[in-house]
Amino acid sequence: MIDSQIAGQHYSAAQGTAIGCEGRVHVDVEDGTIWGGGSVMSCVNGEVQF
Asked: Which residues are CB-contacts of 41 (< 8 A; sequence separation ≥ 6)?
């Protein structure tokens, strides 16, 4: 979305509202590196083996 200019260099989105777990995701681009962050709620614990 950033490359196609749908979103700017700093982008925030809401998610989880429909299921009662409101959250925000933040994405920033600095010197060509994409950084993502936000608050999380752990819903599943476990291990994945590839």
From this structure: 21, 23
